Amino acid sequence: MKTLLFLLLTPSLFLPILTLASPSALVTVGILSQPASESIKLQYPFPSEDWTFVAGSYVDWIGSAGAMPVLIPFDLDDAELYSVLENIDAVLLPGGGSNLKKRMDTDVPSFYQAAGNKIINWVKKRNDSGKYFPLFATCLGFESLLIDETNSTTIIECDLDDEVTSHSMDTLPEIDNSTFWTKVGLQLAKKVFQTDSLFYTHSCGIRVTSFLNSKRLTDAYTLLGSSVSRTNIRFVGSIEHKKYPIIGNQWHPEKNLFERSQLYSFLDRSDETTELMQRIAAQFVQLAREKGSPRNVKDIPAKVKKLFSSNRPSETLPLRSYERVYTFQRYKYIK
Length: 335
Prior knowledge:
- This protein is α/β, with parallel strands linked by helices.
- Helices cover about 35% and strands about 20% of the residues.
- It has 13 helices and 14 strands.
- The strands form three sheets. Strands 4-1-5-6-12-11-10-8 form an eight-stranded mixed sheet, sandwiched between helices. A four-stranded antiparallel sheet has the order 2-3-14-13. Strands 7-9 form a two-stranded antiparallel sheet.
- Helix 5 crosses helix 6.
- The longest helix has 21 residues.
- The protein is globular.
């Protein structure tokens, strides 16, 4: 009887103790930089050779959820890259115009895609080890997920011609079982998805038929939504990994909130749409807070803090595509 009473009074012998992060713990989210675009020639000579950048809209979007954006140069040496990843809580693979295929041999991943592959595979191994680490991928980042999963650059189709536009996304019944979108709020998400509120700007992507014909992709990812380009091609709009906390969208949730130049004057900025885009960022960060191991700011290594510190220049440029970009010099130049 004494033994039974002891066991009843000591449940910790059998149940894991969950350690919740402090409310003041600071979630750190890495954002992969990319080679600077030719438009930055307005300010710098030889931009792609000398500079790398992150669009300010991604920095603001992550920051709006109370997280610290950590700008990760895509050309870091492997040891430095993995050291940064070890000391942050989540990763965002952003959209952009970088090549995912080598210019001289399109069957070979570009150096930028190779960096994305390293991050994606590190995230999978991190989660396999029992340490929760989410990844969110938008547009170009979404396409990187497809290349990484199939180990082939040919999975990407670049005839969609769907640049600088907004339209709806048709959801599949599978979205009702999505861990991520359930937490974001299915009722609001579905309502906004039915309107022409989602911003797309891409030539590349993947047709729904091509996705469904790829066993590697269907084994790994659940198709949640599709959209139709202005050239009447139905393509994949949203996916979620079946095993890992990885979300991929072909569309941009940050644009409705944090790009306000003339190029984006047609975007829906209604209460419901902006609330959804805020919720997406908030839920991504909240997952890392609830299930990961965020630290108090004093415990975040200096090498992480310096990747988003006051000496990182925020350049206000007369750019068409971005309201603001964060630029810094290349670590190395590889064609």
